[in-house]
Amino acid sequence: MGDTKLFYATDIHGSERTFIKFLNAGKFYGANVLLMGGDITGKMIVPIRDQGDGTHKSRLLGTEYILRTEPEIQEMEKNIRFNGYYPFRVSEREKQELDTNPQRVDELFSKLMIEATERWLRVAEERLKSTGIKCYITPGNDDRLELDRAFQASDFVVNPEGRVVQIDENHEMISSGYVNMTPWKAPRDTSEEELQKKIDALTSEVKNMPNCIFNFHVPPYDSGLDAAPKLDSNMRPVIGPSGVMMASAGSTSVRKAIEVHQPLLGLHGHIHESSGFKRIGRTLCLNPGSEYSEGVLRGAVVTLSKDKVKSYILTRG
Amino acid sequence: MSLLTETETVKAPELTVSDQPDVYVRRATGLVRAFSWTDMLVLNAFGTNLGIVLALTVLSGASLFPGSNMSLSVLLGMVLCLFNGLTYGLMAAAMPRSGGEFVWLSYTIHPLVGFATNWGLVIVFCFAYGMYAGMTANFGFAATFASLGTIMNLPWMVSLGTLVATPNWVFGLGTLFILISIVIFVVGPKAVRTFLWVTFVPAMLGTIASLAVFLSTSHEAFVSTFNNAMQPYTNSANSYQFILNAAKGAGANFPAMAIMPTLMALPLGYWAFVGFANSAYVGGEVKTPGRSQPLAIIGTLLLSGIIYAVMFWKFYDVVGWDFTNAVAYLYFSAPNLYTLPSPPVLNFFVGLVTANPYVNILIGVSFILWIFMLVGLGPLVPSRCMFTWSFTRIMPEALAKVDKRGSPWVTVIVSGIVAEIFLYLFTFTAMLNLVNYTIIWAIIFFIGGISAILLPYTKKALFDASPGIVKKKIGGIPLLVIAGIINEALFGFTIIFSIINPAFSGPSGASAYEMIGTIFISGIVIYIISHFARKRQGIDLTLVWKEVPPE
């Protein structure tokens, strides 16, 4: 068997532009395995408000748009999705209800996330099924648990969360989108103890650890791949003389697992501004970072030979 | 996780609803409160090295550009900064997690251009790192010891000031300071933060004290104090007049304030503001058209510009125009006739008119710390750039090694070694006199500006996804492009004028231009070697920057 060329990207947060790039990355980089490391859902809904006079109004990236025709509305929806947000057509009455009912907004988020993910999985299947390229997508800590249902409906895209998958005849991969607690208490945030248990359960099933890939959303603690802005009690970044002050936000459990088991490769995300690589013992750990809001697909192209990482490069596609 | 420049109000534990009625934001990782414009003003204020600018600029202007009025020059410098800062600020707002010319140029033109430009930048920063290490001794300590020794009537301290300004001491102390900076960075980020706070707070307090003393001093009081304090060094009861006569005797003429030299001093007026747009690098993933960034950037410019202009005007008023030119001439052009115990920096003069020894100590320590802060931060920019070179595989993986404390020890040590070489050249040779910084920086900013002009057309999707202020158009042309074009015009003018009129920028002639060429061409050669070496390993360096089709 020849080498396996893997393309890894992460944290696209609903950006349709970067998701389409991700699907095209297999052909572009010559990769035969595509892997998305989590946090695929968006953070913001952009209402397209029916003005009641035949026009719609919406605001995107600080600019207000008055939309007069259906094609204009559809173009607006496309632009909103491309930027990682969810478009939602709404009447003034519905808008007022949303403004006063956070629970309703919460439910709307879940609905739009699942719809978008199902659509993405269909597009992935359409584009990739005949190419021989494998596609794995793991949810991340920001992706709600109900999203797993969307993956269960797909018979092409594989969600490798919480199990061992064989990506080629030589390399197993274990995956977890769970992370140590963040100040935001995201859906897949958990304690270090719980994370350790999940990782232990996964590593116990690996047959060939030296060739294994750890696809863990959160990077190892204090690895240089986990430097995030330090926040004060009001969730405001702390400013110091050299700019925004940074602090390690990675997981000690992940670090310990890598130090103890020494897999071949660690693939991580979660901390958008900490792109780079780091060797922990023999393990090469990568975090490509994320620039989804600029429509840039940060990624890593990794060529795996039988028992080693033959080459790797971080990309800004 | 990343920053979100969106103001939000938490309405429910699991949900965040934006203050803006037109969008809903859920509670998600990385959503943090936005910076206010005052936060960013503070951030930008950290970026400008107020103490050094105040201490050195007037005398440097008098020496390099006789007849220049630095008070006016810094105001003109604000205009230059406005467009360069606007260009860089808008580019940073468009690509908030990709700051710097290396990424912008690699993305919009070619990584060869990005690397060669960034290589030049790192060389200049490493030189500054080495030079400031030397200056901490021969300007910082020498001036402070001389000033304190004179005021407190401690001759041994005055002698110590003279001693530490001699080449062997400058090199020895400079080496020690470089070693200290390496240790700070190798110990880790916490040590760097502690170092910054410990140095910044007293440095700023000393500068505020200097401003207060100087603003409350009259010309007559200064002359009287100077005459009394400097008598032992001039052997004259009228030391002030002695300096004027000595300079005249050495060939100095004291030109009246004039527009041409004031314009020629623009590089000094410009560099006074470097760092004022740091807030532009604090981007966010959800972009709003908020006015915080422009308010903070322009606010910092105006605030520091006013402080500089007032202080420099007051300097001429208190010290005297002719005396300023005389003392600068003697120190820089006829050093054998310069008999004062300290370099003629602002804090020396302020120290003389301060009767209180504690205030004097604070002012002296402040001046040392302002320079030493630059040494302590010396590895910062070169180290970050080298990391990027390694991450983009141009340089070996080993360059990006980080120890368990998160310290990038390899790049820190490499930066320190290069700085040490520059310190040696600075102290013992005239080789660095061939380095024309004005032209080198102008080239870097000129090339960097090209990316701003190209971005809206070559990376249209990225441009379209930028915040409103980046996309703002005037007469149908994006503000980013207009700022870029003016940036190119100003720095193109600077480069051409520097070559036509050598006095404008410093060293000139074949050797100086060969030095500039060597710096940038060596960057090109290194990239080409790396390109082919990586190709043999199956790695295509250009892939890093190629955009994947988005359709």
Task: Write the topology of this structure.
The complex is a heterodimer of chains A (317) and B (551).
Chain A: E1 4-9, H1 16-29, E2 33-36, E3 44-50, E4 56-60, E5 63-67, H2 70-82, E6 85-91, H3 92-100, H4 102-128, E7 134-137, H5 147-152, E8 164-166, E9 172-176, E10 179-180, E11 189-190, H6 192-203, E12 213-216, E13 227-229, E14 239-240, E15 243-244, E16 246-248, H7 252-261, E17 265-267, E18 276-280, E19 283-287, E20 298-304, E21 309-316
Parallel strand pairs in A: 1-2, 2-7, 3-6, 9-12, 10-11, 12-17, 17-19
Antiparallel strand pairs in A: 1-20, 3-4, 4-5, 8-9, 13-16, 14-15, 18-19, 20-21
Chain B: E1 8-12, E2 15-18, E3 24-26, H1 37-47, H2 50-64, H3 70-94, H4 101-108, H5 111-151, H6 155-163, H7 167-187, H8 189-215, H9 219-234, H10 239-249, H11 259-264, H12 266-271, H13 292-319, H14 321-333, H15 346-353, H16 357-376, H17 380-391, H18 409-428, H19 437-458, H20 460-464, H21 468-471, E4 473-474, E5 477-478, H22 479-500, H23 510-536
Antiparallel strand pairs in B: 1-2, 2-3, 4-5
Helix pairs in contact in B: 1-13, 2-13, 2-14, 2-16, 3-13, 3-19, 3-22, 4-5, 4-19, 5-6, 5-7, 5-15, 5-16, 5-17, 5-18, 5-19, 5-23, 7-8, 7-18, 8-16, 9-10, 10-14, 15-16, 17-18, 19-22
Can you give a write-up of this model?
- The complex is a heterodimer of chains A (317) and B (551).
- Chain A contains seven helices and 21 strands.
- Chain A is α/β, with parallel strands linked by helices and 317 residues long.
- A six-stranded mixed beta sheet of chain A has the order 8-9-12-17-19-18, covered by helices on one side.
- The two termini of chain A are 28 Å apart.
- With 551 residues, chain B is mainly α.
- Chain B has helices at 37-47, 50-64, 70-94, 101-108, 111-151, 155-163, 167-187, 189-215, 219-234, 239-249, 259-264, 266-271, 292-319, 321-333, 346-353, 357-376, 380-391, 409-428, 437-458, 460-464, 468-471, 479-500, 510-536; strands at residues 8-12, 15-18, 24-26, 473-474, 477-478.
- The longest helix of chain B is centred in the first third of the chain and has 41 residues, at 111-151.
- Chain B is globular.
- The interface between A and B is large, with 88 and 87 residues.
- Strand 3 of chain A pairs antiparallel with strand 3 of chain B, so a sheet runs across the interface.
